[in-house]
Amino acid sequence: MTLDSRTLGTDSPLAVSALGLGCMGMSEFYGTADEGEAVATIHRALDLGVTLLDTADMYGPFTNEQLVGRGIATSRHSRDGVQIATKFGNERLPDGSRVGINGRPEYVRAACDASLARLGVDTIDLYYQHRVDKAVPIEETVGAMAELVAAGKVRHLGLSEASAATIRRAHATHPITALQTEYSLFTREIEDEILPTIRELGIGLVPYSPLGRGMLTGTITESGGAAGDGDLRRSAYFPRFQGEALRANLALVDNVRSVADEKGVSPGQVALAWVLAQGPDVVPIPGTKRTRYLEENVGAAAVELTAEDLAALEKAVPRDAVVGDRYGDMSSVNV
């Protein structure tokens, strides 16, 4: 199949595939890493027409950017046909310990140079502030990011988990192409203020965890399932995967499965199709480290949802029915 193209942003537009690939889990957080399978997954994604690859310096830490760079360099596809998105701001040390959120201009410049070196490229297509630094005015951080654009090191700018007020201030400093934030049938609070704001400003939406961190695929069970040993989803860091909350949320997944069965597709495909149906300015980046799940996700782009299907899905997962916060610590989201 051939994936359609979508455009993120209007003041600084970036054309990408309708579906991107989140690469984080290839290196950390979601169980054991397999570099060979990860590179094969990147190659297969490019073959299937997925051109937007998403990473960040803190994944690994640092090793995921190197992996993405290798995946692109060893593929049969031209670098010019790939859009690399990476992020700075969640500062970590090589041993994995967390320093904190850093949006200081001097750090922005240093982080970009380090990411370019690890990726093995001359330019980053989409450079995000991963989390907003409450101690640094957003104008200073985005001002430093704008300098990177002027220097030719970065093509387009993005924010992640920013509030509507922060987005407005950032966009007034330099055009913002995309907001990356969590959005799925399980996470819809951005519809109140953030989504209308970015649409008013002409900023695209890049939903991460569009499958509810895998729960909407139907592969998570009370005993773990796809979230096996060493998977961060089994920790208190993700409250929706714990105890009574997990049981309640899995019941919602069963509702989604009923809609999917009627369509003859998987629960994950119908859930991903719902995200894609939210507008032509929406480009979800489901993450996976295996080719078979990648192929399933790409198949979601061919799933056509009628108005009745969309209504059935929103009835299957009422907006306020999901139990538990998306993070154990919500202090750094929607800042």
Protein architecture, described:
The protein has 335 residues and is of the alpha/beta class. 36% of the residues lie in helices and 16% in strands. The chain has 10 helices and 13 strands. α1 (35-47) crosses α2.
Q: What order do the SSEs take from the amino end to the carboxyl end, as H and E?
A: EEEHEHEEEHEHEHEHEEEHHHH
* Oligomer state of the chains in this structure: single chain
Uncertain segments: none
Counting DSSP E segments of at least 2 residues, the number of strands comes to 13
Give the biggest sheet: 7 strands, parallel
* Radius of gyration, CA atoms, in whole angstroms: 19 Å
Strand content: 15-25%
Organism: Nocardioides bizhenqiangii
Domain NADP-dependent oxidoreductase: 19-316
Pfam family, one: Aldo_ket_red
InterPro entries: Aldo-Keto_reductase, NAD(P)_OxRdtase_dom_sf, NADP_OxRdtase_dom
Quick structural gist:
The chain is of the alpha/beta class and 335 residues long. Helix content is 36%, strand content 16%.
What's the helix and strand layout?
Elements lengths: L4 E4 L5 E4 L3 E2 L12 H13 L4 E3 L8 H11 L9 E6 L1 E3 L5 E4 L3 H15 L4 E6 L8 H13 L3 E7 L3 H10 L4 E5 L11 H8 L2 E5 L11 E2 L2 E2 L17 H21 L3 H10 L14 H9 L7 H10 L19
Parallel strand pairs: 3-4, 4-5, 5-8, 8-9, 9-10, 10-11
Antiparallel strand pairs: 1-2, 6-7, 12-13
Keywords:
16% strand; 10 helices; two-stranded antiparallel sheet; alpha/beta; 335 residues
